[in-house]
Every structure is written in structure tokens, then in C-alpha cells.
Fold:
Amino acid sequence: MRRLLFSLLLVSAASADAATLYLCKAYNGSTFWASAHCSQHNALIDRMESVADVPFDQQVEQAQGARNRASASPQGQTFERGHYCARLINERKTIEGRYSNWQWQPPEVINPDQQRTVAINSALRANHCALQ
Structure:
């Protein structure tokens, strides 16, 4: 019985830091935690946290706690905002790059690109990012 309990403890200790939780940001600006990559939910990654392999509700609590601790320091906020701004600017440059050589793009690419560019510019202004 003790061997079984000990082996179960070893297995649980080995997998204690086995899960990754993603804080996803939807195109409408809302955020949510997910265990699957944000692209599967048509959203962008805002943050990733390593959490213990426990039920999802507890993982969310752990990830939210880590997020709160990181944002409690002013340096964390500045770094996070700067990183977020850089990702938005890079995404906007990628979209603009599709149209820089006057290459033909189908309407099913153009329309979402235009909508996403508006959302990116809005997010840049809302977060007081340098626009270039």
C-alpha cells in the first residue's frame, strides 16, 4: 500500500507543472482562459501560464493569480504593455505587407484584414502605444 501511495505521489509530482493555460483575446476585445491554443477559438494569445495538472477551475485560479502578481509591479505592466503593443504593430505590418506590392488579394482576405486593422489601431490607441 505504501509503495502504491509513494508511486502515485511521484507521478503526481512529475506532472504537477504539466499544463499550459492561454489567456485569449477575442477580436471584440473580451478575454478568456483556455486550455487549447487561442487560434482554435479564433482569438489571439494575450498571455500564457504554466499551471499544475488539476481541474480547469483551479488552473484558471492559478493562472489569474500569476497574472495579478505580474501586473502588481509597475515594471511588469510596462513590459506587458510594450510586448502587447509590439505584437499588435507586427500583426499590422504583416497585414499591410500583403498589400505592399499591389498583389491581388481575394475579397475573403481583404474584408477580414480591414476589420482586423481597425481593431488593431483601436487597441493601439486604447493602450497608449506608439503607432509606429
